Amino acid sequence: MINLNYTLFIQVIVFLTVLWVLTRFLFKPVINTLDERLEKTEGLNKKGKEIEEEAKKKAAEYEDRLKEERYKALEIRDGLKKDGLEEEKKIIRAVAKEAKDVIEEKKGGIYKDIERVKGELRKQIEEDSRDIAEKVLGRRIE
Prior knowledge:
Radius of gyration: 32 Å
Largest sheet: none
Order of helices and strands: HH
Number of domains: 1
Helix content: over 70%
Low-confidence stretches: none
């Protein structure tokens, strides 16, 4: 038979108090920190997708421009003699080089942004991990 006496009520009160303290000072801050990290990560992912879309748009514009330039070059070539053919080759080389330079520049910028974002994420993860560990352990970690 179960005896209900004052110790049961004391245990329930102690349990509820411990639960309240843990929720307020441990669980909520940890959950808030995780939520903030998730928001930052999603923001960085969104920014990365925007950069990727912009790069695709620039590549499509480049392709369109390259097609236009080739068409113009063909018209010029058909209307020119031997000297005109040499000039056409120079124009095509210049356009191709310029387009290649633009693409390489954009790729370099994207890779730099990716590396910067990765670095920021690593740094933020380290800081958040250290903060969580300090809060859980209740002491400063060097």
